[in-house]
Amino acid sequence: MTVELTAPALDSGAAGRAVHSLVALGDSTTVGIGDRVSGGWRGFAPLLAAGLGAQLHNLSFQGARMRCVRERQLPLALACRPDAAVLVVGMNDTLRSDFDAQAIRDDLDEVVGSLTAAGTVVLTARYHDHARVFRIPGPLARALRARIAEVNAVTDEVVARHRIGCLDLDALPGAYELPAWSVDRLHPSELGHRMLARGFGDLLAAAGCQLPEPVSMTCAGGVKITPLHHVGWLVFKGLPWLWRRSSDLLPYAAQIIWRDLRQRRRGGE
Q: 149, 119 in Cβ contact below 8 A?
């Protein structure tokens, strides 16, 4: 598997650095939603920690937004004094009516800056096109893509400023294939989480960290998903979720439609 390192690796002085403590920050993806095992969720963070031989402190929680990471998760992360930190957050921000790219940039910059200043190797991710995985009506898809582009632009800016590693999910091989996704098409499946863990592990290795056991891509331990699971989720959870999130995105989608109509009218004059 190839991954894209969108920022320079650490200097040679960090070569061979052992990762004894790993902090995971973010939302439901970092929680491990989509990779169900006996007793709960697993996800990419435990898989990555096992490959590193590190103690994991998973501080993420469902529904977290960038501000949540800054205000609630960052202080706990700094108290752990981790060797490495992985941050996946931002999608919940794109789905809210109070979306503010500048505020997201400021919060992300504070999180990354504080961790790197403490000597932590920090990794984050830039997003893929969710509308290619979770099918939604055209105007909503365009609105979501526009916001994801803004979050990615903010991420690129912070990554470049602090010279940290960034996993480009849009360029991750297999990212748009169905087996990589759980029944909700919003969270990675066990395979998808293993892809994330392998990608982050490769970035840490490129940054000069020791990776004793690269994450296996062979699925093991996860609950088997059947077509019935897909149908059940769509009927009982997927459609209600789409209705709730649409109420936040619809005003923005209407703005995009109106702007396009005005541009077409001007082009026809």
A: no
Nearest one of 131, 75, 69, 72 to 104, comparing CA atoms: 69
Contact between residue 21 and residue 115 where contact means Cβ atoms under 8 Å apart: no
**pTM for the structure as a whole:** 0.82
Alpha helices by DSSP H, the chain: 28-31, 44-52, 66-68, 74-80, 91-94, 101-117, 138-162, 190-206, 227-233, 239-268
Q: How far apart are CA 15 and CA 81, in angstroms?
A: 19
Q: Are 224 and 32 in contact (CB under 8 A)?
A: no
Rg of the chain on CA atoms, in Å: 19
Mean pLDDT of 115-120: 98
List, for residues 153-209, the tens digit of each pLDDT value. 999 999 999 999 999 999 999 999 988 998 877 889 999 999 999 999 999 999 999
Q: Write down the mean pLDDT value for the chain.
A: 84
Contact, 147 vs 159, CB < 8 A? no
Strand ranges of the sheet holding 84-88, from the earlier edge strand across to the other edge: 55-58, 21-26, 84-88, 121-126, 165-168
Give pLDDT tens digits for 57-112: 999 999 999 999 999 999 999 999 999 999 999 999 998 889 999 999 999 999 99
Nearest to 77 by CA among 111, 53, 110: 111
Tokens of 160: 């470049």
Question: Which residues touch 81 (CB under 8 Å, ≥6 apart)?
Answer: 21, 118
